[in-house]
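Handout, section 4.2: multi-component inputs.
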Amino acid sequence: MATNGTSTTIATTATTTTTKESPSNVNVTNVTAALDIEGNVPLESVQLDGLVVLKIIKHCREFFPNTVTGQLLGLDVNGVLEVTNCFPFPGPTKSDDENELVDGARYQVDMMRCLREVNVDHNTVGWYQSTYLGSFVTHKLIETQHNYQQTFNNKSVVIVHDVSRSTHGNLSLRAFRFTQAFMDAQRENKFTTESLLKNKLTFSNIFEELPITIKNSHLITALLHSLDDFENVIPQGGISTLDKETVTGPLTPNFDTLELSLDPYIEKNLEFLLEAIDEHGQEQSNFAFWQRSVTREQTKLQTALQKRKQENVHRLAAGQELLPEEEITKLFKLPPEPSRLDSLLITAQINNYCKQLNQYSGPTLGKLFMSGELQKP
Amino acid sequence: MPIDAATSALNLSFPPTAAATGFVIPQSRSFTVSVNPVVLFSILDHYLRRQEKQHRVIGTLLGVRSEDGSEVEVRNCFPVPHDESQNQVAVDMEYHSNMFELHKKVNSKEVIVGWYATGANLNQWNALIQDFYSKEVLPPFQAIHLTMDTDLKNEEKLLGVKTYVSAPIGTSAKPENCLFLPVPCDIKYFDAERSGLDLLASAKDQPDRSTTLISDMDNLEKTILAVQEMLDRISDYVNKVLNGTIPENNNIGRFLMDTISVVPKIEKLEFEKMFNSHLQDLLMVVYLANMTRTQLAIAERLQLLI
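Output:
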């Protein structure tokens, strides 16, 4: 995806924002206040416009099961990141990487310029990504989010949308950003056991999840109310083909959650979990291999040192010049420690899968007993 | 009488290519328009962000057509700046084509199908803009014009959504003369979008117009309560019919019969077997998942202890 190189090309312009609606007039003073002390108020929550939610869902659905990304636009106001618009990034093309990066950057700049003309907030506040079954903890995400957080002064989030979960009747949107500990470690780009310990970095504090609220504008609220009264929004008067018997309004109660067949879902989840555990095992054996080779090298070094010392004792007895001991330590090189980032990510992923399984099985148990009740004579 | 001229003008409006290639001529048959909610949301957002003295906004509609042309799905849209005064209208065509190019990079399937405007009134500018968009839409299809009544000045105080196609009118075809014919339109969305819409709709009665995401369990609870409410209502109705307080309705009776017969009849033993094996599977999965998480937690603690 052409997001890595591109995020640096956009200038952070948080100056001219348009008042969107009457209540945000109140916010205008807040905006300037927030800009003055920028960087001082940490992000506490994310507020999405209804439009953003729908746009993300649309983009992710259209390219499901491929992973897609896009940019979020908005503003941070006193610790609340308001996302008011977004636009999708083009998917990866067949062309070579160099061109793709340039194209992606140009696309981004062009799009921002165009949106600015129609008074859309043109301040980048993060990006979104689609995922399949919550498997989003990847190197790509880490790299991109790191880029964003570095460029935009830690005030950017990644919103992860799980299409497969959302089809089960409950929208799945999560907002993440890196913790300071992870940012520090990533900046040094060193993921050795030592640095992990120093930063107190474990799988559970790579990300920090921010609560999401969704806010509609007044007009959207009006639209939703109108949609309830569906037949009135779109007049039936003789021109509509809508059959009143079969058509249900767009916002009738949703009973998708009552779907009983969640087995394929759990099966797939377990499959992913097993895969992750296999990978984890591999990482472990890599690490063990490294440890063994370190000990091996160290014993070799010790024996060589011992030898040199004995020789020096002999030389001392014979009155000869002593041989330096440092040379030997230079001769033996300890193999570098493999990056622990992979195992860190994999554990985070495993934790994710397990959590998901737990979250699923609760309602499924409920539904199971419900169907049991139905079968009672 | 210039009838000839008029008829020839009408004939001209049917593109000759359609007939030559032997395709069904879409204009000759009716087609319906379905609109994705995201389009309505975008239009309203655009209207909110209009320039200070602007009374209405316009933009381009993107979408796909079904193969036989009988249905047009409007799936996306983008705003186009325009300037309207007493005696002239200017549409930023360059912006329009730039934006379309950008959209094409993301989704090449979506093509221009028409344009939108806010406000319920149709005036001569609408006709002019319609003429411009008719040239943008690939023949043999017609441009759709969608209006949304953002002034809410109609009787029902609703955001009326209407779609039109245009037909030339008058003795000679002039771009500012056209007749807008209403076409049927409905709202269509996908399964994946439904959960999002439901959530958005749950905010509509809140005074602060906002909502938060709910967990799967809470969502299930909400649904079950809804089902319970429906069951209560229907049993109340059935009781009333049995008591003779209200006359029975055969249609409702039939629907009830259908619904009840949907519940499958399974042998008790067999069901128990299925139920138990399912339960065991599920509990096992939960147990294993929890076990793994505990392992991870222990590993984390150990690491921090060093």
